[in-house]
Structure formats: structure tokens, C-alpha cells
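Q: I'm building a small set of examples for a reading group on sequence design. Run inverse folding on the following structure and report the sequence directly after it, with nothing in between.
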């Protein structure tokens, strides 16, 4: 759960704008690989900026979590 929170924060920092938490979903494929699903204003802003994909990497150890987001245009 902390890794998902870190992922949403990383996405917001990568985009440079705050969104509703529900507009940013962090899910996992069967193999455990995380991916981002956007809706509402978050999705609209990426489309307006010509960004096609948001890649995410999550990691955690004990009480610590970290996330990276890369936006591709």
C-alpha cells in the first residue's frame, strides 16, 4: 500500500500538477509488474501534452517505499 502511495506521488511530481487520488490507479499485471491507469483530469492533461505512456517502478523494504515514474511522449 505504501508503494502505491509513493507511485501516485511520483506521478504527480512527474506531471507537475495535483489530481484527485481516484484519477490515478496503480495496478499490477499477473507477473507483479505495476502499471498506471488514468482517468478524469489526469488522463486529459497527459493527452493535451502529447504524452502517451506513464511507466512506473515500485520498490519497498520494511517501512520504506520508493517509486519512479517516467512519462513518454
Amino acid at each position: 500500500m505504501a508503494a502505491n502511495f509513493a507511485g501516485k506521488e511520483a506521478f504527480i511530481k512527474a506531471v507537475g500538477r495535483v489530481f484527485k487520488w481516484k484519477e490515478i490507479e496503480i495496478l499490477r499485471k499477473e507477473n507483479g509488474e505495476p502499471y498506471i491507469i488514468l482517468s478524469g483530469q489526469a488522463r486529459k492533461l497527459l493527452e493535451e501534452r502529447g504524452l502517451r505512456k506513464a511507466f512506473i517502478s515500485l520498490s519497498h523494504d520494511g517501512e520504506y517505499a520508493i517509486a519512479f515514474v517516467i512519462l513518454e511522449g
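The CA atoms of residues 5 and 65 lie 9 Å apart.
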